[in-house]
Amino acid sequence: MANTERWDERNILLRFAALSDLHIGESPAAQANRRFVRALDRLYAAAGGRLDALLVAGDITDWGTDGQIREFARIIRECLRPETVLTAAIGNHDEKTGTAVDAVSAALILADKTDVRRNRVRGRDRTKFDIHDRVNFAAISSVLHMDRDKRQITLDIQLDDEICSVLDYFEIFLERMLMCRRAAEMLGCSFKLKANGSKVL
User: Fold this and answer.
1) Cα separation of 155 and 201, whole Å?
2) DSSP 3-state assignment of 182?
3) Is the pLDDT score of 5 beyond 60?
4) How far is 150 from 71, CA to CA, in rounded Å?
5) How many other CB atoms sit within 10 Å of the CB of residue 146?
6) Tens digit of each residue's pLDDT (9 = 90 or more) over 18-61
7) Taking Cα atoms as reference points, which of 89, 90, 94, 76 lies closest to residue 39?
8) Cys-Cys with 194: which of 92, 107, 156, 165 at CB 3.0–4.6 Å?
């Protein structure tokens, strides 16, 4: 126990940094882009010049446009050192263009983008709910089914119609459901959605 209580440079197994909500714009001069470059410089300095991994947890770009994605790729190409592995998650600002590149990313997209549940809402004052809060709070149940024989993945959700309609759900989750369909296709499956007992997608 005594060894783990003291800082010892020799005990470091992995040096990594985690960032989120970069909101990269299309122009290299954009404030968010410059802030990201400065953050990378500071992270490398704090880690003694070596980062084994950089985790970017969503909202990489401002609106997921091709130009913003290209700008993010340029910054990574120019600023990330060869030994640093990049792992990134897709946030709601990246959903229009985000897609799975392998089976692992497809599974992560399906797990993350189908996650709708009441306990995601922190407050309980409904007068302060935004549409995301209403949809999550209205979710009575949300189950992701995998039919191996049919190679079909189905999200089956039950919503309390008095809190949120199925239309409200689609207002914010349509892009996510389309992303799930692409992720399922990467796994060689189809993606279906059932809401309140009716097949929707």
Assistant:
1) 10
2) helix
3) no
4) 40
5) 13
6) 998 899 999 999 999 999 999 999 999 999 999 999 988 878 88
7) 76
8) 156
What tokens appear for 151 in the block? Answer: 């190679």
Gap between the Cα atoms of 145 and 192, Å rounded: 10
What residues contact 159, with CB distance under 8 A and at least 6 apart? 135, 138, 139, 140, 165, 166, 169, 195, 196
For residue 155, which of 199, 189, 188 has the smallest C-alpha distance?
199
Does residue 72 sit in helix, strand or coil? helix
CB 190 within 8 A of CB 179: no
- Residues 130 and 184: their CA atoms lie apart, in Å, by 29
pTM flag (> 0.85):
no
What's the CA gap between 99 and 108, in Å, rounded? 11
User: With the C-alpha atoms ordered 49, 52, 58, 59, is the resulting torsion angle positive or negative?
Assistant: positive
